[in-house]
Amino acid sequence: MSERKSFMKNDRAVSETMGVALLVGIVVIMLSVEGAFVFSRDAPDDLPHASLQEWMDTEDETIYIKHCSGEAIRIDELEIVANINGKRYVYPSSKICEDLGNKSHWELGEVLVINASSEWGLNLKDTHQIDFYIVDTPTKELIQKVELTTDFRTRQRFFGWVTPQGEVIDTSNGSAKLSQVLIEDWIGFKNNEKNDSAYTTYFPPTAVGNETDPNVYQEFDFGINPCYYGFRPGDSFSNVTLKIAYKTNDNSLLKIDLRFYDVDNPLEWNSVEVELPENNDFNVTSINLTPYINTTTDLANFKIKFQAVGNANENANKEVNIDYLGLWVQ
């Protein structure tokens, strides 16, 4: 009898243990199923990495947004939401596409112009609180928030030198950075002194005929917000001069071109071409651009492209250096 009782007690203990194990197993299975469901969901597409710059003019009810740097943005996946004094307004992708010339992407340097009066029936005031939200519609994620301001309109107009502030591109296997062209420090250099951090390095390709290679260049986007300097849409300029300090190191170049982007002819870079003389030592050349850069739209889109072509073998590592770029605006 005692052995039978002992067996029954042990049987109950085993049943309780198996019950606990079964419950734990059920919980583990449920968690595994839920985890598989969660992690099997498609992750959102990568958002475009871009920087946008804004300004507005309340005199003509117009808002300007410029694509300053980064990736091109797909327009059919884009929506702009404005919060103006707590009220929501939407600028859909179809309108953005129309304003940017029915293109598929919002490209670097392009300016979107929105007239708040005709689009939303608004009379913009300097006192209005305006926030713009650039939204990626497939993911509903925010690409960038832009806080609009009219503070710059009250500033006095700026007269002086403006240095590049936007994106810099080098395709010559050289080196080009903003910091290298912001300070005119070439005056302190001695002959043959080497200081790569103080100026750019551009390696000119071998001549093909006597023309420069359009694929080998250094490009500088000035990234200017006209309103920051007190200029408003409709203003014109009496003097726009580009100053460039550069050297060619020897006489092995056939040609140096400085090309700049003209918004009146947006499909071509070489709408205006300036041929630069060779400078074996650092020297300054000033170029009058007033006939071409004469509106705030021209100024907002201003960028230059530096190209050269040499008659030496590419393995000779001939180089051209730029120490300073400045744009006088008046």
Which features would summarize this protein structure in a list?
alpha+beta, 330 residues, 4-stranded antiparallel sheet, 5-stranded antiparallel sheet
Explain this structure.
There is one protein chain. By secondary structure, this protein is of the alpha+beta class. The chain is built from 4 helices and 18 strands. The chain has a 5-stranded antiparallel beta sheet with strand order 11-12-17-14-15, with no helix packed on it. It has a 4-stranded antiparallel beta sheet with strand order 5-4-8-9. A 4-stranded antiparallel beta sheet has the order 10-18-13-16, with no helix packed on it. Strand 1 and strand 2 form a beta hairpin. The termini are far apart.
Radius of gyration: 31 Å
Write down the secondary-structure element order: HEEEEEHEEHEEEEEEEEEHEE
Largest sheet: 5 strands, antiparallel
Question: Tell me, what's the shape?
Answer: globular
What is the percent of helical residues? Answer: 10-25%
Q: How far apart lie the N and C ends?
A: 113 Å
Please provide the count of β strands: 18
Report strand %: 25-35%
Number of alpha- plus pi-helical segments: 4
Summed over residues and divided by their number, the pLDDT gives a mean of 75
Going across the biggest sheet, name each strand in turn: 11-12-17-14-15
**From the helix content, strand content and strand pairing, which structural class follows?**
alpha+beta
Query: Uncertain regions: pLDDT < 50 for 5+ in a row?
Result: 1-9, 37-44
Short description:
This protein is α+β, with helices and mostly antiparallel strands and 330 residues long. Helices cover 17% and strands 32% of the residues.
